[in-house]
Design brief:
It is a single chain. This protein is α+β, with helices and mostly antiparallel strands. The chain has one domain: Heat Shock Protein 90 (2-Layer Sandwich), CATH 3.30.565. Helices cover 33% and strands 29% of the residues. The longest helix is centred in the middle third of the chain and has 19 residues.
Length: 127
């Protein structure tokens, strides 16, 4: 798809059963935008970022994607002001703690922006 497109799903309840629904929705958007080649990466990134919002922020959150013709940006915004805390070396026995390491490996870039009502964690992908 050429040009600019934006998709936003606001006020998502922080419930684990919402995460598969979000994966299905982003897959549909990628199909509409003819970006199916990014699907597995986007689904994994959305899974990790939204699961973190569910587990750690525990507030309503927003998921959005923006395509500018050369870069896809995924954003998850929540009302928890604390920064994301990636773990350098999670224990092999630890159940969690690897999500942001995956985000770092799969996304071309990622980061977070604090704001007065919480934060936005974002990541960029190029086809």
């Amino acid at each position: 798809m050429d040009g600019f497109a934006r998709w936003v799903l606001p006020s998502i309840e922080p419930r684990p059963e919402r995460v598969p629904y979000l994966r299905r929705q982003v897959r549909r958007v990628l199909q509409l935008w003819h970006l199916e080649a990014l699907a597995w990466r986007v689904e994994l990134l959305v899974t990790e970022l939204t699961t973190n919002a569910v587990r750690h922020a525990r507030t309503l959150f927003t998921l959005s994607m923006t395509w500018d013709g050369s870069r896809l940006r995924i954003e998850v915004s929540d009302a928890q002001p604390g920064p994301p805390l990636p773990r350098d070396q999670p224990s092999p026995e630890a159940v969690g703690g690897r999500g942001l390491l995956l985000v770092e490996q799969i996304a071309d870039r990622w980061g977070y922006d604090p704001h007065e009502r919480g934060k936005t964690i974002w990541c960029d992908l190029t086809p």
